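Page 47, continued from p. 46.
Same chain as before, 138 aa.
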Amino acid sequence: MDDNSIFIEKLRVSGLRPTKQRLEICKLLFDRKKTFHFSINELAEIFKKERKKKISLATLYNTVHSFKKKGFLKEISVNSEKSYFDTNTSNHHHFLDVNTNELIDLKKDDVDKIRIKKILPGKKIKSIEVLVKIENSN
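Result:
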């Protein structure tokens, strides 16, 4: 994707002014073929490494959360202190490697049908997404 207009439109739809930094964040997130999982701090490191520039965590945080709010990113909370974001916004499951903190996609075919027996009054299930924590078997 060489056309910046795609990224500029994504920023505008997300309620963000397309500044140079935000455009670079948008390209970093969405100009790739494979699903991308990241935390805000990891994204800052990737930005620094790939773009050879520092960026404020506040800019990253606000941009990522604006994309999430508009449905361009999905947030996966692994515990009360750690969240990952995913460029694949479809309902799908994940492995979390606790040794490397890597989030790995699972396809629907990788997990049998899940049946929930409990029903909460006045609520309906929006989606079911499994997070399977894995570790080295040593």
